[in-house]
Amino acid sequence: MRTPNVECIICGKPMYRRPFEIKKARYFACKKHREVAKRLFKPTDKQLEALELGREKGTNHLQGIPKSEESKIKRSKSIKEWCKNNKDKVLVRGKKTRGELHYNWKGGKSNLNQDIRSLDEMRKWQKTVKKRDKKCLHCGSTKELESHHIISVNEMLDKYNITNRDEARRCKEFWNIQNGITLCRKCHYKLEGRTYAKNR
């Protein structure tokens, strides 16, 4: 048994704590008096502020700690497998965090076009188009590649009478890779009449 180096702040019972814990803690309490100590010695303003920030930004105790590529792949596979086997739960969970229920809701500022562009299906579509073409089909560049819709998203919204994300998900034409070409950012901007800034 280790030599006690601290005492319970309520009953004075001798206890052992690791040196790094001693540096961080304001007080120590035995198991019996832990809840009493929590009531008497409430969190400081600084601690409450940190908790508030953490909840607001959705942080967790592992944030900022570098993860190995192996760990990232393993976690990604695990999440994909769970989602594949629990489609009904994924839909229910999705409904709980959409629209006004989402933590980042700002009063409906984003339009349907932006909502569809943020879908996972859109990212997969973009990735598939770039993987197929491998270069800009206008100038042949292999840098700053982007996927471009031949029939624009707005045109498809009008054509298929799409009013929400779920309808867009079900519309096969949205995810047809034949409606996409790969362009470099410079050519993409030029085609859409936007000003290209190289340092962007």
Description:
With 200 residues, this protein is mainly alpha-helical. Among the domains are: 6-57, no CATH class; 112-191, no CATH class. Helix content is 46%, strand content 7%. It has helices at 19-24, 34-40, 45-57, 69-85, 87-96, 112-117, 120-133, 153-159, 165-170, 185-191, and strands at residues 6-7, 14-15, 145-149, 180-184. The strands form two sheets. The protein has a two-stranded antiparallel sheet with strand order 1-2. It has a two-stranded antiparallel ribbon with strand order 3-4. Strand 1 (6-7) and strand 2 form a beta hairpin. The longest helix is centred in the middle third of the chain and has 17 residues, at 69-85. It is elongated, with a radius of gyration of 27 Å. The chain starts with 5 loop residues before the first strand and ends in a 9-residue tail after the last helix. The model has no long low-confidence stretch (mean pLDDT 84).
Key terms:
200 residues; mainly alpha; two-stranded antiparallel ribbon; two-stranded antiparallel sheet; 46% helix; 7% strand; elongated
